[in-house]
């Protein structure tokens, strides 16, 4: 049930997303994921095309956990993400 979930992490970097997921898995913390694609186009792409676009930042990754473990999940991610 989605209303019992809380966002604990959000990024547009695939590497950080993968590391955050690994941290939660290593600590036995269940989570769900939602992704949102920006379509890889900027507001000016209709005039200039997509030349130079950074497609590695065209997806936003959201990680959710149950509300009662959200604080713990955030702690583990923040403590270990930049190691």
Compact description:
Helix content is about 35%, strand content about 25%. It has about 80 residues and is of the alpha+beta class.
Q: What keyword list fits this structure?
A:
single chain, 83 residues, alpha+beta, 3 helices
Tell me the layout of helices and strands:
Layout: E1 5-11, H1 14-26, E2 32-37, H2 45-48, E3 59-66, H3 70-80
Antiparallel strand pairs: 1-3, 2-3
Question: What do you see in this structure?
Answer:
It contains three helices and three strands; from the N terminus they run E-H-E-H-E-H. With 83 residues, it is α+β, with helices and mostly antiparallel strands. The protein has a three-stranded antiparallel β-sheet with strand order 1-3-2. The model has no long low-confidence stretch (mean pLDDT 86).
The fraction of residues assigned to DSSP E strands is 25-35%
Report the average pLDDT across residues: 86
Instruction: List the secondary-structure elements in sequence, H or E.
Output: EHEHEH
Q: Could you describe the largest sheet, including whether it forms a barrel?
A: 3 strands, antiparallel
Shape verdict:
globular
Number of strands: 3
Instruction: Assign a percent range to the helix content.
Output: 25-40%
* Unreliable runs: none
Alpha-carbon distance between the termini? 33 Å
Helix and strand content put the structural class at: alpha+beta
Order of strands in the sheet with the most strands? 1-3-2
Rg from Cα: 15 Å
* Number of discrete helical segments: 3
